[in-house]
Task: structure prediction
Amino acid sequence: MSTSTLTPGLPAPGRTFKQNLARLTFVDVALWTLRLLVLVVVVGGTIGTLINTKYGVAQWFDFIMFGVTIGSIYAQIALGYTMVYGVLRLINFAHGDIMMTGAFSGYFIATSFDRSGFLGAHPVLAVLGTLAVSVTVSTAIAVLAERVAYRPFRHVRGLAPLICAIGVSFFLEQTFRGMFGASVKSYPDLHWASASFSVAGLNVPKIDLLVIGCAIISMTVLYLVIHHTKMGTAIRAVSEDTEAAALMGIDVNRVVVFTFMLGGVMAGIAGVFYAFVFKQIYFYMGFTPGIKAFGAAVLGGIGSVPGAMIGGFFLGIVESVGPTLFFDGIGIPAPYQLRDLIAFTLLIMVLIFRPNGLLGERLAKPRA
Amino acid sequence: MPLGLRRASLLAACAALLSPLSHAQAATVGPVTDDIGVLTIPKGAPIQIAGYWVISGADAALGTDEVRGVQIAFKDHGDMIAGHPVKLSVEDDGCNAEGGQTAATKIAANPNVVLAIGPACSSSATAAAPILWKQGIADIGTATTAPKLTAPDRKPEYDGYVRTVYSDLDQGKSDAGYVYNDMKARKVVTIHDGSPFAQQLAAVMADNFKKLGGEVLSVEAIAPTDVDMHPLLTRIATEKPDVVYLPIFVAATAQIIRQKSEVSGLEKTTFIGSSGVMAPDLISAGGPAVVGFKITYPDVSPDALGKGYPAFVAKYKEAYGEGPISGYNANAYDAGVMAITAIEKVAVTAADGTTYIGKKALRDAIYATKFEGLSGPIACDPHGECAAFKPAVYEYTNADPATFDIGKNPKKIFP
Result:
C-alpha cells in the first residue's frame, strides 16, 4: 500500500486526465466548485473595487490599520490556544474567557485609576498597573483551570478533555456574571491615546499604534522565551514528545503549568488592550474573540507559535479589508455583515489547501 | 419482540416525544369547553404567567424595566388573579431568535402556563410566538415593534400574539419625517443588525425618506456582536452622508458612536439612533461619546402618557430604588393589566375552588380587551396591534450613567 499522502481533490501524479476524471467524486467536484467560486468572488470583487475609485490610499491604509489592530489582539489570544494545544493536544475553549477575566479585573483597577485622576496624571503607570492586575488574575485562573479541571483529564482519551474545557468556559462566564452582573461595563478612555496623528496624509490612531506595538513586544518576548530559555526548550520538547521529554528528566507538570501561565499572561494583556480599544466588557465578551482567535491559531497552523501570530494578523486584516475589497466591486450590499463569513471561508480554504495551516504543525513525527 | 410490535412501540415513543410539540386539542374540562384546550388551576394553586425578556448583557435594562412594569401591574392587583395568587416566571431570551426559541420551548413545556408576556425584542418574538401558540399559549409583546409581527398577512402561527406597543411602520415614517424636515438632511445611510426590529425599522424609514425626496446612499448591516466598527465607518465616510440612522441596540450603537470620532470624514455627519438604546447602559458603554447623541423614541413624558404614569413611577422607585431604566415600562404595565383583565373575564371557578380557563377563549378575550392604558389607549386590531406611536426625539446630555432620567438625560428635544 502506498504511504504517500494525497491532498483531497487534487489529481494524483502518474494518472492520465481521463483516469483522474473517472475517479472524480462528488466531494471533489464540490471542493473544486467552492475553490472556483471563492476565486471568482475574490478576483472579480477585487478588480471591481479597485477600478472604482471610491476608496483612496487613506481609506485602504485605515482598513489595514484597523485590521492589524484587531489582528494583534486575535494573535495574542491565539497564542494561548496554540501553546496549550502544542503541549497537551487540548483545545482550551475556555481561553477566550480567561481573556475576559483579565479584562474584568483590569476594569476595576482602571476605573479606580480614572476616578482618582491617576490615569490622567500618570497614564503609563496606570496602564502598567492595569496590565499587572489583569495579567495576574488571568494567569492565576489559567493555572487554576489547568490544575483543577484539565490535569485530571490529561491522560483521558476521547472527548472528555474538550467537554471539560467547554465546561470551564461556562463556569467562568457564569461566575463572572454572578459576581459582577450581566450588564455591560465600560473601560475609561485613554485620553492621551484617543487622538490620531497624520503621517503623509494618512490617519494614524495613537491607540492602534499602542496596541500593535505592545502586542509585537509581548509576542517577541514570548517567542524569545520559547526559543531561547531552558523552560522554552522544555516546552518545545514536551510538545514534540511528552514521554521522551519525561524520560530525559523534564518535569512535564511544571512545563504544562508554565505553558498555561504564558497563555494566561498573553490573555491578560490581550484583554486589557481589547478593552482599551473597544471599551465594552461583559461576562460573555470572551466568546467571539476566542472563537476568532482559535480560527487564527488553526489558520496559522495550530501548535505553531509564529503561525498563531501570523494567523491572528491575517484574520484581522482580512476581516477589515475583505468585505470592502471583495464585495464592494461586485455590488453586494452591506458587506460588513458578511465579515465572519469571509473570515471563516478563508479558514476553510486554507484548511482545504493546507490542512496543517499556513505554517503547519511543527512536529518531528506525525501525530496519531 | 415482533417487528410490527417493535415498530408500534417506536411510533408510540415518537408520538410521546412529539406530543408537547403538537397543537393543543379541543377539550371539555369541568364547566369549560374550548377549541384548543382548557387549563385547570386547583384551589390555592398559582396562576402561572411566563415572561421572557432580555435580562442579561448589554440590553438587560430594556427587559428588566419591562419585568418591573408587569410586576407592578400584578402588585396593583394584589398579586391575585381570579382568586389565585399570580406567579410570574421570567426567562432570559438574550434579545435574539435563539434565546426566544429556547425560552418559548421551555415555557411551552410547562402545561400549567396560562399565558406569556414579553418579549422586548422582535427577533425573539418572531421565533417564540409560533412555538407558544402551537401549545395554545397566547403572548402579549411589550416592546416588540417589528411590523411583520402584526401585519395583516402574518401567518396563522402568530394568531396568539398581540402587543401593547406600536408598530415600526409608524415610527419609521415619523423618523423619516424628522430627519428630512427637522434635521434638513438629504442623504442618509442606514445601519441595521439583522434583527427583525432593526432591519424592518431601517427599511421603513428609508422608504419614507425616499418618498420625501431624500437619498439613501447605502443600507449597511452589522452583526449585533461586532466590536470593530472602524472599517464600516471608514466605508460610510466615503459616501459623505448627512445622517447615519442606526436603529440598533446598545452594544453596537455604543461602539459606533465611540469609534466614529476615530474615523476621518465623519465630522459633519449626525448619528441618530432609535428605541433600542434608551438605557443607562448606553451611557456606560458609550462614555463621553454619548453626549449629543440623538434617539427617536415614543413620547414617554408624563403629559404624553396616561394620567396614572406619575403614580406608577413613584411605585417603581419605591419598589426598585431607582426610576425607570428604560422606556417601555408603561407598555409592560399595560400588558400586565391586559393579562389580568382577560384571565378574569374567561376564568370559571367551580364550587370546589378549582378554576378553569379556556385557551382559545383567553386569546379572544385578550384581543377584545379595551382600556385606557398607562402608555395610551389600548385596543387591538384583528392582527394583534393594540397601541399607537407618539413620536419624540431625545438627546443624551450627560456621560454619567447615574444621571439617566428619561426626559432629562436623555432630554426630550422634539416635539
Chain A touches chain B through 41 residues (CB under 8 Å).
